[in-house]
Amino acid sequence: MSPIDPLSSDTCGCGTADVASGLVSVDDALALLDCVVAPVSGAEVLPLGQVQGRVLATAVITESPVPPFDNAAMDGYALDSAALAGPVLWRLRIDGCIAAGKAGRALPAGSAAQIFTGAPVPPGASAVITQEDVHRQGECILLKRRPNPGENIRRAGSDMAAGTQVLAAGDRLGPAEIAAAAAAGRKELALRRRIRVALLITGDELRAAGDPLSPTAIHDVNGPMLAALLDRPEVELVTSKRIRDRLDETADTLSGLSREVDLVVTTGGISVGAADFLRPAMTRLGGQLHFAGVAMKPGKPAALGTLGGALWLGLPGNPLAVLTSWVLFGGRVLDRLSGASATRPLRRYVVAERPLSHQPGRCEFRPARLIGVDGGGREVISFPSATHSHRVSDIVGFDGFALLPAETETIPPGGWIEFLPFRL
Ligand SMILES: Nc1nc2c(c(=O)[nH]1)N[C@H]1C(S)=C(S)[C@@H](COP(=O)(O)OP(=O)(O)OC[C@H]3O[C@@H](n4cnc5c(N)ncnc54)[C@H](O)[C@@H]3O)O[C@H]1N2
Ligand code: MOO
């Protein structure tokens, strides 16, 4: 299999097809994003119980070895295997019982100590033999086999030596990382502060979900979807506003929000119509546009800019276009702002269930569902017959996007195709 193609490669074509219309390729847009979006400054220290999903600001280094002492890996008997003399069968007297959390005394010659998993191995013992491997006779055990030196002993520092870096700045903290921090003896961690985000929904036609509709109105779909996409541990959604399609209102609101937050996410009003006021508002306010228009379908009008100290991520109005541009750019903006270690979306090759046709032009992100594995062990996807950027029904139950290169017209059943899983 060939390596994954850059999205702007000749194979894709989206870097060339729309150059004339001033669109940047997806790869160029991602590169610009990486250049301009830097982590927010400032850290906070929180207890382990409150760090799930957050990004670490400073590395975690163990101060002492883990485990701190040699201990038993199994329930059984601690003994000195080198001291077993004479022919098998060996008989040893049981001298004491060591449970986890208790200390054992030095083993007298010719004896073994009963020991439980996690208990410290007593001085003088070189191995732990499991209780299934011995025959117990009153206060003695009989052994048919000489345990190997070190058998069933977990050595001090064998998990983490003192001074080991177990987590790096930029690591995102999930259950595994929190476990590592706890094992390293930390009860609190230094985290990047949360990203302050404002959500701005634009459109005269919009009514809140569930509100009665006039004959020309529709329900706001993007507001609830974006609020859900922004519901992440590293995000503080400071405000969510809905405004009308007016230049003054758009500019005033953008200007006010840019003084309060790190990132303003907008939806709608970024295309070329006379009622699209986001770009004119940015121009009026002296904002800087890093890109405005990407050679992709859906999501073509997606834009990124800077206004004062805040970033502006402009998403289109059509709901599938919002989701597509969020998957490509939104998650990555949050990763960069949060200081998380770089993570490109993980793409892989899968095969098409049936013939796939595409109108040549922009490279297309077609919603797709993983439906199983074929006889050759290849993952198979199904997909709708076309991408309709306004259709919400097309995204329900889908697993990601099939990437259709700009010049591709058809892909036969069983043909290789790149797949970008949702990483919401
Ligand atoms: N002459 C051209 N017209 C359009 C172009 C173009 O290049 N030239 N691009 C088209 C593409 S592609 C897209 S995508 C849309 C994007 O337009 P906007 O981002 O300016 O979005 P709106 O015009 O405000 O809305 C588009 C569509 O989405 C509906 N919408 C808006 N907000 C919401 C919401 N919160 N929830 C649900 N639906 C929403 C809106 O009613 C429109 O139907 O422009 C094309 N036009
Ligand atoms: O690119 Mo638009 O986002 O197709 O509908």
From TrEMBL:
Keywords: Magnesium, Metal-binding, Molybdenum, Molybdenum cofactor biosynthesis, Transferase. PANTHER family: GEPHYRIN, MOLYBDOPTERIN BIOSYNTHESIS PROTEIN. CDD domains: MoeA. Its cofactor is Mg(2+). GO terms for biological process: Mo-molybdopterin cofactor biosynthetic process. Pathway: Cofactor biosynthesis; molybdopterin biosynthesis. It comes from the Bacteria. Belongs to the MoeA family. The keyword Transmembrane helix does not apply. This is Molybdopterin molybdenumtransferase. It is an enzyme of class 2 (transferase). It catalyses: adenylyl-molybdopterin + molybdate = Mo-molybdopterin + AMP + H(+). SMART domains: MoCF_biosynth. One of its GO terms (molecular function) is molybdopterin molybdotransferase activity.
